[in-house]
Write a structure and sequence with these properties.
Layout (H helix, E strand, L loop, with lengths): L7 E5 L4 H12 L3 E6 L11 H10 L3 E6 L5 H15 L4 E4 L14 H29 L2 E6 L13 H21 L4 E7 L6 H5 L17 H8 L10 E3 L6
Helix pairs in contact: 1-7, 3-4, 4-5
């Protein structure tokens, strides 16, 4: 049955990239997966929520597609209600959705700065707020938000605004973990390291050296480990996938 047999996981940002890899891995481990993103049709980057669900079904798993703009409160609330209606429970939320632009601060229009915060910070808040009442009522659950070394140690020019959103996210997770610990809900951040996603390929030259980069599904095992935690075993932490030995 797998380590997630009988559990339900929402994976936001799972039409492609890391989110899709996590969604597939969770389904392989027995979870019923809600594949959540805005992408119902392909854009300049390949991948849709329907294609992720099809891949999971092809591999023998169970999943449903839920179109959701995570920066929209009505969307996130409706998404959680849809998952509860279909599957009856929510055991884990994995938030892989994010926006990233490479540009200096002086060259960044405010509308892009605002978009980064709307998705990377406000979206994390809205997703969390949508699932928390159910988790609090059941007194269990695991919430995982994906972060980046840009939050602290990475100061590459062009990543300042993205790093600021991830630093805000890590602080949000630390505070939230303390708030909901009494309900045995684990809240953690995952830094997946260097992952060869569609977006990473799109923004790099054809001769880029991908040595040391991993495929999206390789982020699955560490995310699974985190999804199985509770407030007594691990919460309020930033986990670096590159150091994971599980």
């Amino acid at each position: 049955m797998g380590q997630l047999g009988g559990k339900v996981a929402i994976v936001a940002g799972s039409s492609r990239g890391i989110g899709k890899g996590i969604a597939r891995y969770f389904a392989q481990q027995g979870a019923k997966v809600a594949v959540v993103a805005r992408s119902e049709t392909e854009s300049k980057l390949a991948g849709t929520i329907g294609q992720t669900v099809d891949a999971i079904h092809h591999e023998g798993g169970e999943a449903m597609a839920v179109r959701c703009d995570i920066s929209n409160e009505t969307d996130t609330q409706a998404m959680a209600e849809t998952v509860l209606k279909q599957y009856g429970r929510i055991d884990a939320l994995v938030n892989s959705a994010a926006v990233l632009f490479f540009d200096t601060v002086v060259d960044t229009p405010f509308k892009r700065w605002e978009l980064l915060y709307r998705v990377n910070v406000h979206g994390a808040f809205l997703l969390t707020k949508a699932v928390l009442p159910h988790m609090i009522e059941r007194r269990q659950g695991s919430i995982i938000h994906l972060t980046s070394q840009a939050a602290s140690s990475l100061t590459t020019p062009g990543t300042t605004h993205y790093g600021a959103t991830k630093a805000a996210l890590e602080r949000f997770v630390a505070g939230l973990a303390a708030e909901v610990g009494e309900y045995d809900i684990a809240v953690n951040c995952l830094d997946p390291g260097s992952v060869k996603t569609e977006g990473a390929v799109f923004t790099r030259p054809p001769d880029f050296d991908w040595a040391g980069w991993v495929d999206p599904i390789d982020v699955g095992p560490v995310t699974l480990h985190m999804a199985l935690q509770n407030a007594k075993s691990m919460t309020g932490q930033v986990i670096r996938a590159t150091a994971f030995k599980g």
